């Protein structure tokens, strides 16, 4: 028998270059990482665009591009959205 389920989000590292997502939650045992994410504006409902994933992760929040380390990227969970017109 099939049990219904829902997906709340995926890790930001799974997005393809150019895809956008809305932050659904941040998950990390490291409070320093969580505080850094909050300080750069990564909060519930923030729209993030993945600009580059190799050789380093570069995200864009509003008009600001930021480079993040892998542990920070893995802590961010998003719901993928269709491209928005800016």
The DSSP helix count reads 2
Give the strand tally: 6
Q: How helix-rich are the residues, as a percent range? A: 10-25%
Mean pLDDT: 88
> Could you give the order of strands across the largest sheet?
1-6-2-3-4-5
CATH class: Mainly Beta
CATH-level-2 architecture: Roll
Poorly predicted tracts of residues:
none
Measured on Cα atoms, how large is the radius of gyration?
A: 13 Å
Shape: globular
**Which structural class should the secondary elements be placed in?**
alpha+beta
Largest beta-sheet details: 6 strands, antiparallel
Account of the protein in words:
With 86 residues, the protein is α+β, with helices and mostly antiparallel strands. The chain has one domain (10-81): Roll (SH3 type barrels), CATH 2.30.30. 17% of the residues lie in helices and 36% in strands. The protein has 2 helices and 6 strands, in the order ββαβββαβ. It has helices at residues 31-39, 70-75, and strands at 10-11, 20-26, 47-52, 57-61, 64-68, 76-81. Strands 1-6-2-3-4-5 form a 6-stranded antiparallel β-sheet. The chain is globular and about 45 Å long. The relative contact order is 0.31. The mean pLDDT is 88.
Key words describing this protein structure:
2 helices, 6-stranded antiparallel beta sheet, 86 residues, SH3 type barrels, alpha+beta
Provide a quick synopsis of the model.
GO terms for molecular function: transition metal ion binding. With 86 residues, the protein is an alpha+beta fold.
């Amino acid at each position: 028998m099939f049990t219904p389920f829902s997906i709340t989000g995926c890790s930001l590292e799974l997005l393809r270059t150019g895809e956008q997502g809305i932050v659904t939650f941040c998950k990390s045992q490291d409070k320093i990482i969580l505080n850094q994410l909050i300080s750069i504006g990564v909060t519930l409902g923030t729209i993030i665009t993945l600009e580059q994933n190799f050789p380093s992760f570069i995200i864009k929040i509003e008009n600001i591009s930021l480079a993040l380390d892998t542990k920070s990227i893995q802590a961010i969970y998003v719901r993928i959205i269709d491209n928005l017109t800016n």
